[in-house]
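Q: For a teaching session next week I want to show students how multiple molecules come together into a single three-dimensional assembly. I've collected the sequence lines for a complex. Could you give me the predicted structure tokens for the whole thing so I can convert them for display?
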Amino acid sequence: MSWVTVVWTMLMGGCVAIALPFLLTAIWQRRAVNLFFSAAVGAIFAMAVMELAMMRANSIEQFARAQQWAHVPLFVLVVALVGFVYFYFGTSRLWLGVAACFVRFICLIINFAFPPNLNFREITALRPVPFLGETVSTPVGVVNPWTHLGELSSLLVLVFVVDASIRLWREGRARDRRLALVVGGSITFFIVVAAGWGALIHLQVIQAPYFVSFPFAAVIAAMSFELSYNMFRATQVARKLRLSQSSLRESESRFEALADAAPVMLWMSGTDKLCTFFNKAWLSFSGRTMAQEMGNGWAEGVHRDDFEKTLETYTVAFDARESFKMQYRLRRHDGEYRWLTDHGVPRYDDQGNFAGYIGSCVDITDVLSKDEALHRFEERVALAADAAHLGVWELDTTTNKIWMSDKARALFQFEPRERMTYEIFQGRVHPQDRAAREAALKRAIETQGGYEIEYRAVLPGGTVRWIAGRARCVSDDGGRLVRLLGVSMDVTERKQAQELFRLATEAAPSGILLVNDQGRIVLVNAHIQELFGYERDELIGKTIETLLPGRFGSVHVDLRTEFLAAPRRQMLGRGRELFGCRKDGSEFPVEIGLNPVQTPQGSLVLATVVDISARKLAEEEAHRRRDEMTHLSRVSLVGEMTATIAHELNQPLAGIMSNASAGQRFIDRGDVDPGKLHEILVDIVDDGRRASGIIRSIRNTLKKGAAVRQRIDLNEIVMNVAHMVQPDALAHSCELKTSLAPDLPALEGDPIQIQQVLINLIGNAFDAMRETPVSHRQVEITSVRDGEGAIRVSVRDHGGGIAPEVRERLFEQFFTTKEEGLGMGLAIVRSAIEAHAGSIGVDNAEGGGARFYFTLPVSK
Amino acid sequence: MSSSHHLVFVIDDDASVRKGVRRLLDSADYKCELFASATEFLARPFHPGPACVIVDVQMPGLNGIEFQEALIERRRDEQLVFITGHGDVPMCARAMKAGAVDFLAKPFKSDDLLQCVERALLRSVAQRRLAAEREQARYLLDLLTPREFEVMQLVITGMLNKQIGAQLGTAEKTVKVHRGRVMQKLGVDSVAALVRLVEKADIAAAGEHRTKV
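A: Of course. Below is the structure for the complete assembly, covering every listed component.
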């Protein structure tokens, strides 16, 4: 017998020896791990057979067939390894393993579809190679490119195992680390060796027979070491159990009988924390045998997520010898995880020695499913919310998943079945509002409180809607935050109305202020900022007196209180001067409208402020112009007449003076010719007569000149004039009063001349009161009927009155009591009145002052 | 003060003013002529001797101010005294600017008017003498050849013969000859006298001569 045969046969024998017990346990205990392990060992056995066949191949066909069939155990090996690692490590990524198996399966198909096999496209010869003291066959041929697919499969297995090992190592338990190191490490190492060796042969770098089975045998050794170690521990436990006292065993067996009859799931553990007993209810629940559950075996069925917490609760309570209650998910025989509530208490023997724990479990999944009922309730709430146009949503803060009611989805235009996460939801929030919403949410989660925020949502079509959102945190029993419940409402219409209001307010041409009942400003528009030179922020919350000149401050506080006691619409600033005060302290005239507004926040006052500086200026300008005009019209009447008079009179005067001077000079010279002198004197008399004629003709002109005759309403003229001279009255600090008889008949005349008469008389009245104290400066214009056929108008002042000696001459030309006067005014006035067939006169009124009056006949 | 060829003209549409003023002028021994309108006066042949015109501002037809403008237009230099029944400041300023002797408001003081007339006549005499001298000087300057005129213009700036020669591009000697002839033609014996003569002819006149060449 050659060495090759001996070694390979030994390997095969070993394989059978290892595989059998594990296969039996796999069948007996229904342990997947053992099954996979057995399969792996079986595969290696088969591979060893094939390798031996290859080495001993006499023809190319024999070799090729053997190599072809060797891929079958290789495939089984890959599947078995993946399955083992998956079930034993519990940390692997299944998809990686499945991928490896799949690729290997593809290899298998290709292997059989394209002869001779996966590795060679064509085997041209068999080369005899000396090996272990004899000659074995190795192939020579063209390597099949598909062989790399096999290598890819090996690589995937490698990655799968390394990944699972690393993750297991990270979990950090001593047993796991050993597992990761021994099993993970050896599998990794030997796959590299086996696959590498195979690759080297295929590439014909080395001429050697395949002995892939050997490295894998090493893997098997590592795996079996691990499994055996566990079995050894289990046997230890079993021995300990057997060692316990027979009486105890008896009582326990009685207890067991009792416990098996109990409908609840019971378990017991010893002083070493390892479980020693599970009742029938438990076993029928888990579908496992007592042996499987023994020790820590039961923990294999605990849901991965609950595993650590369960173990910790148990250990901590155990060490403290305290009873405990915990909930965890345990795999039922049908593979479904069910929620159990597990209540454990320490137990003591007759002597009072601590003997371990006993616990009972109840399946509470159905109880928990009452949560579903709760969910149905929530659905009803959602329905109600729908009706109220409220979108309801719930955010799971651990998974970031969002459940949204249909209304909420409609609100944000999400598809009914669309998967929702926090990020997707945030995507709908307007970029400018995103940060604010995120911050509010974070704060709510941190403080376990809630939030209220208004933000814009951008819908897929690009439309922007305003959303009012509210949410609050919901915690579980342990005070752990689990979710955030929120409602969202479309408030676009309200926002638009607000925006419209804001725009209207902003665009208003006058300043707008809202003041609360404390006199504090709550709203200002842009115009106010412009008018007063303040920034908005500087005004909000300040008292309204900020905008008034200091001297009005205290008075205004009283006025304000008064106004708020009985608010009414009011216009301020007409007739009385009101001033606003700018930030720089300058003042400007304003007109203010006040309007009380009732709001849920209490009564507010809406104030509109209009800067009337421009209007004031315009008014002043108008006054000035009217002033100028009246002055001009007064001056022009008098001025025109004086110009004419001057020119007309100066001619004869110049003649008179020249003649007279010439006469003087002749006399002075001494050569007086009486004839010449007579001539001169005649000329002088002529000129004098001419001058007096001129004056007479002027008066006649005035009388005749009033050629314009129309129907006039005297009261209307009085009102017009009173209006015209108003600025004059102000300038003289006089008050102008009119007292007009109603329904006066019309009369014929020249309205301009009558106007001139009135202006003249009123002007005189103002002049007459220069010495009168301001409080008494009053001019009264009265119109009354004077009998049937006349109207009498009087202008009364409160000046010094008319002295008797001047009264007679008052209406004469060139008579004046004024320093600057021409002495023409009243003469012209008389001429004008006489031209209207009226009369004029003057007397001193009762209580002081003069009264000029004129009477005009009513037209027939 | 009056001499035979002195003459005072009175233009006023008002007969009594005319009469009065004539009597006043008579009493001061001024010869005068009366006109009822400016047009009438302008129709009269020009009086070559010293003349004063008393004129009313407000007149039908050509008024006083327009009359003044008409005289200036005709380059006549009668001295004007305005009288007015109703004058104003801008009108007065305008008349004075245009060279009126005075502006009197009617009724004026007789002495004021007579003083104005005297002043006007003196001004007229002086003006006449100046004009005569100007005519004489111009007549003399007209005798110069263009080259001599050029040399003369440089001489009065105080340049030496050498400098003038350099400027005109001729020999100093030639300049000397021209200069001698200029002095001879103009009848002056010093540069100072030459300058005075040119000034009398009015400096603008010099330009005229040059462009004439």
